[in-house]
Amino acid sequence: MASASRVRVGTLVPLAKEIAGSDNGSVSSIPIFEGFNVVGRNHLVVVDKRISRKHLSLHASTDGTIEVVVEGPNPIIIRSEGRRRKVCAKERAKIANDDVLELIPGDYFVKYMAVGDDHRSSIPMNSTDLKKGKRHIEDDIAAVKRNRQIMEDEALARTLQESFAEESTSASGTTSIQTSSPLDGAGSSDRSNGRTHSVDHMEDVLSLTFRLMRVQGLPSWANASSVTIQDVIQGEVLLAVLSNYMVDIDWLLTACPSLRKIPHVFVIHGQDGASLELLKMLKPSNWILHKPPLPISFGTHHSKAMLLLYPQGIRVVVHTANLIHVDWNNKTQGLWMQDFPWKDAKDVSKKSPFENDLVDYLSALKTTLCTKKLALNIQLLNCNVVITEQWPEFRISLPAVGDVGINAAFFRKFDYSSSMVRLIGSVPGYHAGSNIKKWGHMKLRTVLEECMFEKQFCKSPLIYQFSSLGSLDEKWMSEFAYSLSAGKSDDGSPLGIGKPLIIWPTIEDVRCSIEGYAAGSCIPSPQKNVEKDFLRKYWTTWKADHVGR
Description:
Blueprint: E1 3-15, E2 30-33, E3 35-39, E4 56-60, E5 66-70, E6 76-80, E7 83-87, E8 92-95, E9 100-104, E10 107-114, E11 121-126, H1 127-146, H2 148-172, E12 210-212, H3 229-232, E13 239-243, H4 249-255, E14 264-268, H5 273-282, E15 287-290, E16 305-310, E17 313-319, H6 325-329, E18 334-341, H7 353-366, E19 370-377, E20 381-387, E21 394-398, E22 402-406, H8 440-449, E23 452-453, E24 462-465, H9 474-484, E25 488-489, E26 500-503, H10 507-511, H11 527-530, E27 539-540
Parallel strand pairs: 13-14, 14-15, 23-25, 24-26, 26-27
Antiparallel strand pairs: 1-2, 1-10, 1-11, 3-4, 4-5, 5-8, 6-7, 6-9, 9-10, 12-18, 13-16, 16-17, 17-18, 19-20, 21-22
Main location: nucleus
Active site: 302 (nucleophile)
InterPro entries: SMAD_FHA_dom_sf (IPR008984), Tdp1 (IPR010347)
């Protein structure tokens, strides 16, 4: 039988997670030959479905150049010459001798070791081996095609996120983001020296974006890079502002004991009735509660965020979970957070769009205006009176700052110029004049109209996901889609409105969830709202088995 010979050009050598050069035991050594190579799940010693059977393809040329193509849906990381780069689905990159690859960001480290020209080896392969390899590749290509659209959408989103990250990093030189350690991680509380712990390019770029929360009962690979509430609230917190709808203090103090050590905790909530009475009864004595008043007869305060004050600056967190056990443990939830230093004395008057977004929203929480018709005189005298309800402003003493009042204006003391996002606040009520573009989807439209996008973003799909459904109509849905599609492509033409879809779980989705049918209580909506005829074209479901969710 005829035989063939392939020239070996190098090896992917497994490394310990700390890049110490020792075998990590979870990946076998992978020989790389001239021509086409496949790296995938078969090369793992352990079972991890995040790694596709055809995770990467490597094209090795005779001149020693290796081109890597990410074939699976999950990204990889390439460390080269002191820089760390994420490569997403369908993207290509070149690697050279001594470059390190993370087959999954943060896991499965391998180093490419090239074979010298004088030491290249030829390994005989018979035609049967070659046919098996070809058949294996063809099977994998079919699987890749089935996921192509999903991969394209994910790659576009990641590319956009990374472009923001690169712009911010190039503007500031370093970034102050950390998701694994708080602002005081550098071990200094001096406001003038290292207010935030600098992170160079070798740190995880993914920490600049969003994280999922850890879900109990999932395998460790499905919780990779996820966070718990203790990962978010940690270190020397001087003041915590916790904004949420539902707050279970018993669970909160058990899940995050460090909250007991924070001298000042301000809780903005949406609870009432017996739940509010229980909240008042269980709260520690140094906690202050505030329920923002509503200018309309329905709705509730739902904003889920945290402001954590440290000696060196502030951590801003926006997330999706109520402060209750089931939300932080049994559901796929996400959060965004970024750390910001105090402003330098010379920059006190400087403001950024993010700063204005934040302070405007906090101001709306502090004083919600409610105009009512009130009879001031039984005799015929009527007039409009503005009823205001202030949040309970309080004062605290801060190291190197002194006595300060905690109000919306206080949060202008921090430098948000490195912010990677904009905040879109939602304030209940009816808005007119300039306020129309200050909140909600009209604010989002205003922000997007200032943005330029690559041509590939034209008519991008619009995916809506929420846990409760109000009474929607076709007119509002059209306005919402128009706002989400605002902006122009790089040639100046409008992006165009993409296809809108609403993710809503089916009965089977609920039944098969971690909580089973009990999870249905968290997606409230009257049947008449869900069954509106015009909504039928929007419904879709979501599943991400490849990441365990």
